[in-house]
Amino acid sequence: EIVLTQSPATLSLSPGERATLSCRASQSVSSYLAWYQQKPGQAPRLLIYHASNRATGVPARFSGSGSGTDFSLTISSLEPEDFAVYYCQHRSNWPSYMYTFGQGTKLEIK
Amino acid sequence: EVQLVGSGGGLVQPGGSLRLSCAASGFTFRSYWMSWARQAPGKGLEWVANIKQDGSEKYYVDSVKGRFTISRDNAKNSLYLQMNSLRAEDTAVYYCAYDSGDYGGYDYWGQGTLVTVSS
Description:
Radius of gyration of chain A: 13 Å
Shape of chain B: globular
Largest interface: A-B, 26 and 24 residues
Helix content of chain A: under 10%
Shape of chain A: globular
Largest sheet of chain A: 7 strands, mixed
Oligomer: heterodimer
Order of helices and strands of chain A: EEEEEEEEEEE
Distance between the termini of chain B: 40 Å
Number of helices of chain A: 0
């Protein structure tokens, strides 16, 4: 079973700064890695799929990179609405069609 | 417009049962794998179960195997989660969700329904 470990647990930054969030897989997941943003009281929102592809409507300041076991989500210049919790996630197709989430990184205003 | 409307949550005693429903609209429900995920209060996201388009394959997270059953009714565009032998640690907001484009992630989520297991 694949385990996703996110770091840091909390990231304190100011608007306008650059944010880099990390996700490490316990074994290679190729490029099958997604990122979500979740705000309080809301369902998660898909930001990035297949490691580096922005989902529909996601601003260009969000970018994803990585393959294998190490991945990053970068927000180039933080806007006030970007402060939220971010999760990485992998879908495995074999032997079971199942999903695994990382534990999350809270991006808070400094 | 895609809509996933969850219902059926509530307060239940440990050992009790509950059935969640998710009414889907705005897309061809029978063409997609469907899922349930959950989030305990103040905690992270956890995938719970998947069901194939025709219901022939189902997968569960280990912690719910033997207690929860996912099902669907394509004629009614509805997804279900039958939860038995509920435990305090099953307390969470339960979301139905699906992947519309083989993204490997969920681009559509329901609004969530809260299940509280407590005496």
